Amino acid sequence: MRGPTHAPWAVCAAAVALMVAGATGCGGGGGPDGAVLSSSWGDPQNPLEPANTNEVQGGKVLSMIFRGLKQYDPETGKAEDVLAEKIETSDSRTFRVTVRDGWSFSNGEEVTARSFVDAWNYGASLRNNQKNAYFFEYIEGYDKTHPAEGEQSADTLSGLELVDDHTFTVRLTQKFSTFPDTLGYAAFSPLPRAFFDDHDAWLDKPVGNGPYYVESYTKGAQLTLRTWEGYPGADKARNDGVDLRVYTDNNTAYTDLLSGNLDLVDDVPATQLKNVGTDLQGRYINTPAGIIQTLAFPFYDEDWGKEGMEKVREGLSRAIDREQITETIFRRTRTPATDWTSPVLGEEGGFQDGLCGDACEYDPEAAKKLVEEGGGLPGGRVRITYNADTGSHREWVDAVCNSINNALGDDRACVGNPVGTFADFRNQIGGQKMTGPFRAGWQMDYPLIQNFLQPLYYTDASSNDGKWSNATFDRHVDEANAESDTRAAIRRFQQAEEVLRDEMAAIPLWYQNGSAGYSERLSDVALNPFSVPVYDRIKVKVS
Q1: How many CB atoms lie within 10 A of CB 410?
Q2: In degrees, to the nearest 5, what angle opens at C-alpha 468 toward C-alphas 396 and 447?
Q3: What is the pLDDT of residues 164-201, one digit of tens each?
Q4: What whole-number distance in Å separates Cα of residue 372 and Cα of residue 366?
Q5: How confident is the model at residue 17, as a pLDDT?
Q6: How far apart are CA 103 and CA 11, in angstroms?
Q7: How far apart are CA 540 and CA 39, in angstroms?
Q8: Distances, alpha carbon 162 to alpha carbons 99, 133, 157, 284, 333, in Å
Q9: Cβ distance 244 to 60 under 8 Å?
Q10: Which of 41, 151, 392, 527 is most buried per CB count within 10 Å?
Q11: CB 150 within 8 A of CB 202
């Protein structure tokens, strides 16, 4: 997702009182009755509109109540047709979409081509202020519905054309051969007329077309989902529903899991990792996810953007002992990164294990030499900026700095630079106020190599926070998008990634795993490549 991965624990209204009292999660204690499971959760940042949800907690709900043209296989991540009967193109720029017949929303409305066209137009409109609007930026007319400056001059995307009840066409601003595979992302979900006819009522109780429907939601307490018996898809839920309970602290959620008051925790706290195997007696999952953590650089800063600094960046990379840090801080819930994508893509998807080569190997002697050859650290010191309000960022930043200091033989070579809140951190990044390396994280929107490269490193891309720019990289990306053959496109993207390596545009740190623990009541628990539980496959033992 755009920008650093979001904090998974939201704040409920009674957070302070609960923490002081030592109470359990905001949803209260006690396991659910029947074949309904309870799972830890956090209130989403925004209302559950598909085009306005770009963080993990809201995304969990959308994955249960919506189905789009494509769906990502929960095991392989491959984009598979769901509501798309077929998507055709002859030039990788204009696509003709045929929507499968026989689908409806849980309120009985039929899902048609208009359900998609209306939803995408709504999401792309500047007036509607949707967080995921940029997903429609490849469609012609986006510059009119969502201009970078000034007011919008059009209400609909000129690149969308409704042909009939089950057919529409999409015209892009450039060739994008893998565009159909992006359509499993929640922002491209269809919307019923009820969304537009009574928007406030829909926000209070969202209506979708997935295997679950929203029964009720009390902010700060619980969102209740139940199985939709009329769901026409092949992936019908194997349980009767899910109670998503709001927690402000994942340690509290873990305690509730151990005491039998909760069935599923999908983010085991770092402080419990050393005990989780014994505590849960094997009911623990630790699997790779499409998430990478890096150190980004402010190329708009003259000290970091000048020629020759690629040696300094490579030297810093070689000064970081990734193996030791992932073992001692993260206890193997992270894996040292050797490229700029994710292992979940697989070799066929473009992952190149070891692409970084020696530049990602810990070598103090080489690190010191490279930094010296590059002209030394700007100002004699690096300050790694990070948000201090969530996660274990302080611990790993301190460990990275200790590693750099040891490698360079200078106790003052690297220090952490904490920013109080995630919001302030992002505001400083957006305002181009970074003066040194800063924490960056990326959770894939969809399992394509393009998603790990173009949004982050293409010139002026929406999530290119460091403002790195390289004409050769851009050319390879453009050529990849223009390829009609997927394998050829992936090879072009890999060539672009090799430019990243040569310039060390960002320092890859580690790939992040998804983790989860569950109760004895559950079976068939798994995480998908986005580190989200595959709720519809979970079975619940009924006593």
Answers
A1: 15
A2: 70
A3: 999 999 999 988 888 999 999 999 999 999 999 999 99
A4: 10
A5: 29
A6: 37
A7: 12
A8: 11, 20, 11, 47, 46
A9: yes
A10: 41
A11: no
